[in-house]
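$ ./design --mode recover --in tokens.txt
reading tokens...
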């Protein structure tokens, strides 16, 4: 309580300051003093217009609210028949793809529970397969049209300087049936004749989107059974969780058409402001935008910001508008020191007020042939609306993370991805090395996610990002990208979508490691436990074991190994001493007790090989060994957990692919493992890598151990080349 009271004067000063800014003229407000010496956040209308001008956008109208329900404009008169039409945009440069065959549609659907709202959309059938998932994209703002993404990020086309359209090689319609919606109402070509349809909260936004989906799938029943995913960026970090929860709620209540929701993805989003606003100064300091002194000074407002957000809660009230002003002082203070950087991509400068030039989109969409093709009549195109922006201010500081755990527990996937050079919705979680709110989110898999390894996300044999995954939750930091990942890294973004919607993004770790292994080995087999010279005293079978398969007999058996220090042993066998010192390498004949349950864990092996494997074990009198196949959920689990897995039904297993072929031994002596290794080439099985469960590896995730194996091998092969 004492701490809260000590913060209260600061909070009251900030709130009174910013509320006065709302109530009095700028001249009067200018006479007020700022107790912490921080830059003030600007008026909402000014801030919104600055954001819009940063894109070089100049919409002729601020919002599509057509005055009066009795308006006689052509658009309103035609509203009942503005439903949907196939379209072909003019000036499309031919590339051998027939637009007519692709099923491009545009139009309006009436929003059932609104007063008079009509929502505009563009739909692009998959260029690959009509059974591909349906993916909806929502642009943020709040108040910016999704056509920004159509022409500058992940749509089928890009706009050339002469206003012709060029096919986008990495459009997301290559992996999905792609749907763009202008929302909230008043944005883009969406419109209403009733001002009551302007939305102020996620409840209103998500209900409108749900009504839209019901109308869309009623018009396209052939798509209703396809998997459905929600995607978007920036302020869509608010829209998306609420929309996903609304769809899930509708499905559970059996409202209307069942929507086959499988997952939702947030790109560089604002989702949990209380957590994310604290990352601003860390990100700015780490990237040299502010000094340590400035960092400490700006951070003095963080406790005040946190208290303001707590007053806001999750309901969206007037106190939420006050918290917007208080907390955005943090961002404004950073920008005052950082200069004319592009806060969407700190590698770039903003030339004048422009950070990007998206003006060709407005020019293109305002052409009469284009408007006729889209069937929008006289409706103005509002690229970004400062009115919608201001209407959503009471929603800005709400925490939308609170509804996500329920979705995860019900098996709905969440992908959070972020370009590493974005400031305004940055990726950072300094203490955790990843997004703070994702790590802080409380759900049944939180501990496993937090402890899961970071692994390379590999596209075309290059690391395109860093991935963390556990169960339905994935986080991807994308290299060399800012706020708009599909624009900055289109190939990586398309591959991300493809893998994620097909349930294989978790396999990216395995793919990356397999790539590293193949590159380092040039496709040759690797022995993590080095292949030493054959010992003529070793029997041709694992004969130190009882022929009985009793695990009790096995556990009571211990084989005394040759007494020697690890270094002496390794030198005699040609293993470099520095390999043992600098890595996790354990010599095969080190003086170790038998460790772990009697088992073989097979990575990269197919279940179809089970018969050959059992036959091989029978020849070695090793049938007592439990054989375990690495499945998709195992790659982030510890080696010990994997070794103790029960797999009664091999046919039902989902084998992790692709993985390097690795055989992990458990519960065998050094001599016994060597018998297996020396005999393996005669088994008829493809070459494999061999490694052993030892105490210092038991608690490590499989993905991390594979990296260590690769590292050890590279050290060993480099030493061998020196000695050759």
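writing sequence...
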């Amino acid at each position: 309580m004492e701490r809260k009271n000590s913060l209260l004067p600061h909070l009251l000063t900030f709130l009174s300051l910013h509320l006065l800014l709302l109530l009095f003229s700028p001249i009067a407000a200018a006479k007020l003093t700022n107790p912490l010496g921080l830059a003030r956040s600007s008026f909402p209308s000014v801030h919104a217009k600055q954001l819009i001008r940063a894109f070089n956008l100049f919409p002729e109208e601020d919002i599509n609210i057509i005055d009066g329900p009795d308006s006689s404009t052509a658009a309103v008169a035609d509203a009942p028949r503005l439903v949907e039409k196939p379209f072909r945009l003019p000036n499309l440069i031919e590339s051998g793809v027939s637009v007519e065959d692709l099923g491009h549609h545009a139009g309006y659907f009436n929003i059932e529970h609104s007063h008079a709202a009509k929502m505009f959309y563009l739909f692009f059938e998959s260029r690959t397969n009509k059974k591909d998932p349906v993916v909806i994209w929502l642009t943020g703002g709040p108040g910016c049209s999704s056509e920004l993404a159509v022409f500058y990020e992940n749509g089928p086309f890009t706009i050339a300087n002469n206003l012709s359209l060029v096919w986008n090689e990495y459009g997301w319609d290559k992996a999905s049936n792609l749907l763009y919606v202008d929302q909230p109402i008043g944005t883009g070509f969406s419109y209403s004749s009733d001002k009551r349809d302007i939305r102020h909260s996620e409840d209103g936004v998500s209900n409108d989107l749900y009504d839209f989906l019901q109308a869309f799938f009623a018009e396209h029943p052939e798509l209703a059974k396809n998997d459905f995913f929600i995607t978007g960026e920036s302020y869509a970090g608010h829209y998306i969780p609420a929309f996903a929860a609304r769809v899930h709620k509708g499905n559970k209540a059996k409202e209307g058409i069942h929507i086959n929701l499988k997952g939702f993805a947030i790109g560089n989003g604002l989702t949990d402001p209380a957590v994310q606003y604290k990352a601003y100064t860390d990100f700015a300091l780490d990237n040299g935008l502010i000094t340590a002194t400035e960092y400490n000074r700006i951070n003095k407002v963080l406790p005040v910001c946190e208290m303001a957000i707590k007053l806001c809660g999750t309901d969206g009230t007037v106190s939420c508008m006050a918290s917007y002003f208080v907390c955005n002082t943090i961002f404004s203070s950073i920008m005052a020191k950082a200069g004319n950087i592009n806060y969407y991509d700190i590698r770039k400068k903003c030339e004048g007020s422009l950070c990007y030039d998206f003006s060709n989109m407005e020019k293109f969409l305002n052409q009469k042939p284009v408007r006729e093709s889209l069937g929008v009549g006289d409706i103005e195109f509002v690229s970004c609306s400062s009115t919608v922006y201001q209407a959503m201010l009471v929603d800005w500081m709400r925490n939308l993370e609170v509804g996500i755990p329920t979705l995860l527990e019900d098996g709905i996937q969440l992908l959070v991805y972020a370009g590493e050079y974005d400031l305004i919705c940055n990726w950072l979680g300094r203490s955790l090395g990843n997004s703070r709110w994702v790590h802080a989110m409380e759900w049944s898999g939180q501990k496993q996610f937090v402890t899961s390894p970071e692994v390379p996300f590999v596209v075309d044999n290059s690391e395109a990002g860093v991935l963390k995954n556990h169960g339905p939750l994935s986080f991807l930091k994308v290299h060399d990208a800012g706020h708009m990942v599909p624009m900055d890294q289109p190939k990586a973004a398309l591959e991300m979508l493809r893998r994620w919607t097909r349930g294989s993004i978790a396999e990216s770790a395995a793919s990356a490691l397999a790539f590293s292994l193949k590159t380092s080995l040039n496709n040759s087999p690797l022995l993590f436990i080095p292949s030493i010279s054959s010992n003529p005293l070793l029997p041709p079978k694992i004969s130190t074991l009882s022929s009985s398969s009793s695990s009790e007999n096995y556990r009571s058996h211990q084989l005394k190994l040759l007494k020697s220090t690890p270094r002496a042993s390794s030198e005699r066998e040609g293993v470099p001493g520095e390999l043992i010192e600098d890595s996790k390498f354990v010599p095969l004949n080190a003086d170790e007790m038998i460790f772990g349950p009697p088992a073989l864990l097979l990575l990269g092996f197919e279940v179809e090989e089970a018969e050959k494997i059992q036959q091989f074990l029978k020849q070695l009198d090793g049938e007592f060994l439990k054989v375990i196949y690495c499945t998709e959920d195992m790659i982030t689990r510890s080696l010990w957990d994997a070794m103790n897995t029960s797999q009664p039904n091999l046919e039902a297993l989902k084998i992790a692919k692709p993985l390097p072929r690795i055989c992990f031994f458990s519960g065998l002596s050094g001599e016994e493992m060597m018998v297996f290794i020396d005999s393996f080439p005669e088994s008829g099985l493809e070459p494999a890598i061999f490694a052993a469960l030892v105490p210092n590896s038991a608690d490590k995730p499989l993905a991390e151990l594979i990296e260590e194996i690769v590292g050890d091998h590279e050290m060993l092969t480099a030493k061998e080349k020196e000695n050759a």
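exit 0
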